[in-house]
DNA sequence: TAACTACAATATCATTTGTCATATTTCTAA
DNA sequence: TTAGAAATATGACAAATGATATTGTAGTTA
């Protein structure tokens, strides 16, 4: 739960936002509530500045009042809180299709940072442009409110995770959650996904030491639950993983995952 | 983290909402953002049904879609998630002046319950009446958004609590948080407050067993940090408690506590 | 008052998880 | 291609926390 550095963002400009990237957010919203064509194209037409950002880089600093909203296009980022002791708690994972922080601005300063875990492709959307789109397209605004509610449900589940569950259960639960969330945006197959983060990152997410994360992964490997090599996670026995995690699909309010997971 | 029962609410009607109770919410909002007289009286004029509710009683059930908002007037309640194993995680404490759940309704069903911990005095506000007040009084609506942001900041701090801090640190942090929040509504003195909950409740809040809560309290007693007798908590050494907790006042965004706590 | 109940206090023992140390492997950059 | 850095793997041990059992205490009900 320690031993990481803080690095300034090096933004490498990238010329063109392609169709694949542009529609990640739309795909995600569509899993929560069917989106009319007009709302989808309103979102697609939001002008963005796209950037490639390296791993372990701050996208937003604690104390910032960001004037742009960041749309994740590829890679893993996280909301983090750093402790005076050097410990770090990850508050949320930001996956492709996720926005941060659309609701900042009411209170002056962020009380957490947003850091990339892997290399990421992100888009910067002007807060004003987004606000005006949401005013003109109420269905889109509603969809973003649903996203917010989903995020809150995930946060609650994370508190249950660290408060009530064993290391193995926590890990299993997180892996199930990531499967469903990544499937919703087309970043996972039926039985696996790219998981380009470190065991330390997992530990800071689950409230475990990196050593214990490693131990827990070994147990999972030995039990033929998952395989994790070269940043690629393969789930070998999803139904058993779900039982261990006591994972209930419902809290995500998404139509993803229903074909492979029990309710 | 187990051994509790679920009880149906027995609502004892109480005839009259008095001035003291009526203004708990207003007092709380005023600590976040100064409230104009017109907004205060708009809130004061919301008609409510007031009830006395016993301890260990469900105010809202998981799966409900509540059509009333509950305003806490006195006592302690909590948002709870129950696990299949029988464990319970408390997600948030609801104190006098707190509302639950003003934002429900977008998504169909609650994924948690709201239970009283102590005997409580609560007021039921019609969701429609509240919505119409908020439409007519935008400053009040803004104040409630700030409340929401404060609640989210508290949730983040709770995740840090269980994820990063030792039992002693967790407990110290929670006791500091409760001091500030209760002071904001006039339910705490400079050095103490009524804490009418059990050690089991504390454990379910902090992700600890009731036995370990007891152990931790003994350490605090032995170190002359706090005294807790007869449901009354007395803080003997606030500054040391704050240091142990690494408690930063800022995240609550309230004007309460500044006179007795370091920044 | 007596009996009952919930809560608190505490001892003992078991288990989980953290810490430290050290290889080993993989990745990265010169 | 190689040297160095970062990440992973693993063992040994320590510390924190959980589980169980027992007793005490205060409040409640009959």
> How many distinct folded domains of chain A?
2
Q: Give me the strand/helix succession of chain A.
A: EHHHEEEEEEEEHHHEEHHEEH
Largest interface (CB < 8 Å): A-B, 36 and 36 residues
Helix content of chain A: 25-40%
- Reported by name, the CATH topology of the largest domain in chain A is Jelly Rolls
How confident is the prediction overall: mean pLDDT of chain A? 91
Largest beta-sheet characterization of chain A: 5 strands, antiparallel
Helical segment tally of chain A?
A: 9
CATH class of the largest domain in chain A: Mainly Beta
Shape of chain A: globular
How many β-strand stretches of chain A?
Answer: 13
**Unreliable segments of 5+ consecutive residues of chain A:** 12-16
Report the CATH superfamily of the largest domain in chain A. Answer: Jelly Rolls
CATH architecture of the largest domain in chain A: Sandwich
Distance, first to last CA of chain A: 33 Å
Portion of residues in beta strands of chain A equals 15-25%
GO molecular function (chains A, B): DNA binding; DNA-binding transcription factor activity
Domain HTH crp-type (chains A, B): 165-239
InterPro entries (chains A, B): cNMP-bd_dom, cNMP-bd_dom_sf, Env_Response_Regulators, HTH_CRP, RmlC-like_jellyroll, WH-like_DNA-bd_sf, WH_DNA-bd_sf
Organism (chains A, B): Methylobacterium terricola
């Amino acid at each position: 739960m320690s031993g990481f550095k803080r690095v300034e963002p090096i933004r490498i400009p990238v010329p063109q936002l392609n169709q694949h990237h542009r529609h990640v957010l739309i795909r995600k919203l569509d899993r929560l509530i069917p989106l009319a064509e007009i709302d989808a194209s309103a979102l697609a037409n939001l002008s963005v500045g796209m950037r490639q950002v390296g791993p372990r880089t701050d996208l937003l600093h604690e104390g910032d009042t960001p004037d742009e909203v960041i749309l994740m296009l590829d890679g893993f980022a996280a909301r983090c809180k750093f402790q005076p002791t050097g410990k770090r708690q990850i508050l949320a994972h930001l996956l492709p299709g996720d926005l941060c922080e659309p609701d900042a601005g009411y209170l002056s300063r962020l009380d957490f940072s947003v850091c990339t875990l892997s290399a990421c492709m992100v888009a910067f959307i002007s807060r004003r442009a987004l606000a005006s789109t949401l005013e003109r397209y109420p269905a889109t605004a509603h969809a973003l409110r649903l996203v917010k509610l989903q995020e809150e449900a995930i946060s609650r589940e994370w508190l249950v995770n660290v408060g009530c569950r064993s290391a193995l259960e926590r890990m299993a639960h997180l892996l199930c959650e990531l499967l469903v969330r990544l499937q919703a945006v087309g970043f996972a197959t039926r039985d696996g996904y790219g998981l380009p983060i470190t065991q330390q990152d997992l530990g800071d997410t689950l409230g475990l030491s990196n050593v214990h994360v490693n131990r827990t992964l070994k147990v999972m490997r030995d039990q033929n639950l998952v395989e994790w090599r070269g940043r690629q996670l393969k789930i070998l026995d999803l139904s058993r993983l779900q039982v261990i995690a006591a994972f209930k699909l419902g809290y995500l309010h998404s139509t993803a995952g229903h074909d492979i997971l029990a309710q």
